[in-house]
Amino acid sequence: MKKILIFYGSYGGGHLSAARSIKEYIDINYSDIETCMVDCIEYINKALNKVTTKAYSGMAKNAQWMWKKVYYGSEDGTFAKFNDKTQKMLSIKLNKLIQNYKPDLIISTHPFSSHMCAILKKKKKINLKIATVITDYAPHSQWLMYPAYVDYFFVAHEGMKESLLERGIKENQIKVAGIPLSNRFLTNYDKGKILSEFNLSPQKRTVLFFAGGEQGFGKDKVFNMLKALIETFPNLQIIAISGKNEKMKQQFDELVSQTNSDETVKVLQYTNKIPELMSAADLVITKPGGLTTTESLASRSSNNSNQPNTWSRRRKRRISRAKRCSNMDKKRG
What we know:
Blueprint: E1 2-8, H1 14-29, E2 33-39, H2 40-44, H3 46-62, H4 64-73, H5 77-101, E3 105-108, H6 111-122, E4 129-133, E5 152-155, H7 158-166, E6 174-176, H8 191-197, E7 206-210, H9 219-232, E8 237-241, H10 246-258, E9 265-268, H11 274-280, E10 283-286, H12 290-298, E11 302-305, H13 311-323, H14 327-332
Helix pairs in contact: 3-4, 5-6, 8-11, 9-10
């Protein structure tokens, strides 16, 4: 039986979602292939993963100027060299996992794991195919480290292919395939039935509002955004996803009570019906990660990428608006 090892990372939920979608597709369609998903940084060092994930979340919400320096600094220069040396050290333990599992193919949905695997291949520690699935609408150099040792780069649209070609990556390495997403986002749902489950009317405009998770806008900004939405557009009905933050859920509930909007605003801390809700929504308000944008577009909802001034996401928003959809969404149409 062939084996595929799928690496992802904890920084943002998109890398994990893409990995799950890839695994789901392979498991359903290829019974002769075994798949295994691994969080590359958590596997190497759980403490490091916890610290770096919190640092990323903190910069994204509270120190955007610092995130700008990290984002652009990691393209080249001193920070990029430091990151390369770090990945070389971390790759030593990752190699142990690869040698034990003995995969026939590695699929990476995070730049760190792609970087480490390319290093191992360059050092001749491993000899197998490596596929990097870029989960953004714009390429960052960290996705493209040691490209000669990566067999395939899967990208979201033709513009990214052109960008990779300009960086010297060979055409036969680049596959324009869209960003992976679950088939649930391509399913046609009964809007009326979905809204009725939450005691909402199919006759009114519906907004799906995401608080943004651990790497979101910051709780004060999110609260003020939702408050303004409720007070400015009383005829809208809103489904607000508060996420894992208990305090935010409590704040949302108190806001609904204070504004007497119990009938038109529903607060959910967690739901496994995001595909159904996106399909039923007329507008989605969220931070514009590559996966969320793709899921919204595939669900045919009007995605409003209201983001916390992170520069990487400005690039993605411009590209997304220009393209309007990924290759996957084109296939659905």
